[in-house]
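Contributing new records

If you add data, match the layout below exactly. Sequence lines come first and carry their own label; structure lines follow with theirs. Keep one chain per record. Anything else will be rejected by the validation script.
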Amino acid sequence: MLGLTAIFAGLLGIAKVKLHVDEDPRIGQIEDVLPAANCGGCGFAGCADFAKAVVNRRVRCDGCPVGGSKVAQKIADIMGIKVIQVLPYRPVIYCGAKRNDKLGVVPYEGVESCVEANVIGVSQACVYGCLGFGDCVEVCEYDALQMVDDLPVVDYEKCTGCGACSKACPRNIIEQIPFKQERMLVVACSNKEPAKCVKQVCTVGCIGCKACSRIFADLFKVEDNLAWIMYDDYTGEEDFSKAIEKCPAKVMVYFGKPQPEYEKMLADEESNEKETIVS
């Protein structure tokens, strides 16, 4: 038995030497500069897998949404390559209908989850808008989201751009866009129905009138009765005041920091809660 033990130990020792694979030291160096959020926003299971993918040239240096441009530059320095300017991607909400803006709301007694309500499809008349149960808030690990007046509100000071909220939304109304300035204009609607149908379910829905595209033909596009902004051509220097003024539905909303519109919503919500408690 002792002889067999010695033989197996020797074989294991030889195998360890023969099969040993040297790990590229850059993998550990990249892991050290990553934020260690392991959020999956890069498309990999964790930061370690992302670091290996960068070294193996399977993903770009700027693939970490949480780290942003600073981390991308550090990774590029480790890899010995140049990195172009990296814009932070942050979530915006393609729905601006607050509680009183939604028409045809049906009493809902099921599980308070957007996923469940979306399957049943009876909580509100608009089949495109926010369901208001806060699945996106639940999955945010950075406390960067809260529900205000049945709409998610993003705290961009806390948001890392991990994309968890986008994945959690069953109606895909939360999307990551490149923030070319601190406040980005968004057409806060996802309804693709004709104008008559939109007006029956929402007071602030896009009616596809094309007023915005007539003013900014190179930035606004209207397809399937819905206007949207081409962010690849968005410079951040535009003056959208005329387009906002001409929009009959008032669906154009600025997202980002500072966001006075949402600050007022938060203040009103807190005031309502205090009045409820007192009464």
